[in-house]
Amino acid sequence: MTTSTLAHFAILPDGDQYRLRLAMKDGSTTDIMATFDQLDALAEEIDRRLDADQDIPMPSDD
After folding, report:
1. pTM of model > 0.85
2. Which of 9, 16, 17, 50 is 20 to 30 Å from the Cα of 31, by its Cα?
């Protein structure tokens, strides 16, 4: 499995679904079709992850 670095993304309406377009720093793009409910679940999971990470003390640069 290869890991790419995200450069930017867009969410575009496409009929009754949405197209999640991920653009990588190497210039490649990936389009993923998702329903409203799938994007909503993704947003909730991102919020949970960020909230959990916010509570973890970050190491100092000392």
Report:
1. no
2. 50
